[in-house]
């Protein structure tokens, strides 16, 4: 059976970063490796933009509590601004590990915009690693994408 | 089933499959195939990336459990399955006692494109503790009755990006 459908996913941009190490988070917000993207939404079609970031994580301490936030580059002030409502906290007891599928939806904008994800451990005793698995022998290549819908 | 997507999109050649019937798969220390993850995908020369996205549920069979999953490709020269790469592994769950692991996961791998057919699948095994795939812990059905043997069908979506 085949279907022909009108797509609502437009101008998807992808970036993938090769990784040969884990990212050891700190209690200060740091840039999440491979999360930076510069995106131009579709000019004439669509109303929203979805930002999506994928990687894996594993525990460092028995409890991990990791906070993510999305930021955008402000040309006027030459600084990264935190996007309202973009904070997400991952908390896991008992040596957790898993996948991260972070998504955020914007109203569509005109022109180019730079976006990146930042994250930190909530405390020095609730730490975790990004881009590696339970064994810490495999290193995931994180991907970031934006698409107009 | 094949979906052809057009109209100003750079996403195309979307193939999706969902299990028609399913049994739970109990994890062991050896890799086993994940149901419905096996696909032969035809990639054309205009693709830059291929996205492989598999969604599956796991639940504990003991007080804790961590599973390890990986993507494989079929080598038609050696007629054998090989790991796709060292960066297409993922782990999931909770590793110590009273970490009652149960969750739904989407494993998303973005792959460099190829020309022609390639057969892909996922496998998983236990890293520690016990889990079973495709099973929920328990759910409340619409008639308000709890069901502790509810099975959740996995599904796979694969598509190309120009």
Task: Write a brief structural summary.
The complex is a heterodimer of chains A (149) and B (162). Chain A is mainly β.
Description:
- The complex is a heterodimer of chains A (149) and B (162).
- Chain A is mostly beta strands and 149 residues long.
- Chain A has one domain (10-148): Jelly Rolls, CATH 2.60.120.
- In chain A, 0% of the residues lie in helices and 54% in strands.
- Chain A has strands at 2-6, 10-16, 23-24, 30-31, 37-39, 48-59, 64-74, 79-82, 88-92, 96-107, 113-121, 128-130, 143-148.
- In chain A, strands 2, 3, 6, 10, 12 and 13 form a 6-stranded antiparallel beta sheet that branches. In chain A, strands 4, 5, 7, 8, 9 and 11 form a 6-stranded antiparallel beta sheet that branches.
- The two termini of chain A are 26 Å apart.
- By secondary structure, chain B is an all-beta fold.
- Chain B has one domain (2-154): Jelly Rolls (Sandwich), CATH 2.60.120.
- Helix content of chain B is 0%, strand content 61%.
- Chain B has strands at 2-6, 11-18, 25-26, 32-33, 39-43, 49-75, 80-83, 89-94, 102-112, 116-133, 139-140, 146-147, 155-161.
- In chain B, the strands form 2 sheets. In chain B, strands 1, 2, 3, 4, 5, 6, 7, 8, 9, 10 and 13 form an 11-stranded antiparallel beta sheet that branches. In chain B, strands 11-12 form a two-stranded antiparallel sheet.
- In chain B, 36% of the residues are buried.
- Chains A and B meet through strand 1, strand 2, strand 6 and strand 10 of A and strand 1, strand 6, strand 8 and strand 9 of B.
